[in-house]
Design a protein that fits this description.
Elements (H helix, E strand, L loop, with lengths): L6 H16 L6 H15 L4 H4 L18
Length: about 70
């Protein structure tokens, strides 16, 4: 689709997109950074990458070894 549009049309689309984006509400990183940090610390106990997965609940654990007789 973009190949069919002239440079002028592409620039108009870009300007329209930027007009939409400038209307998005913004917050200071000093505030949102603290909120993200607090959330991550609160949820750390539920994070399987930090805590690990119990062997009995691990769906990827090998059920049995391969035996060749």
């Amino acid at each position: 689709m973009a190949q069919d549009l002239s440079e002028k049309e592409l620039l108009k689309m870009e300007v329209e997109q930027l007009k939409k984006e400038v209307k998005n509400p913004r917050m200071l990183i000093s505030k949102t950074g603290k909120e993200i940090k607090d959330y991550v610390e609160a949820e750390a106990g539920n994070d399987p990458l930090l805590k690990g997965v119990p062997e009995d609940k691990n769906p990827f654990k090998e059920k049995g070894g391969c035996m060749i007789s």
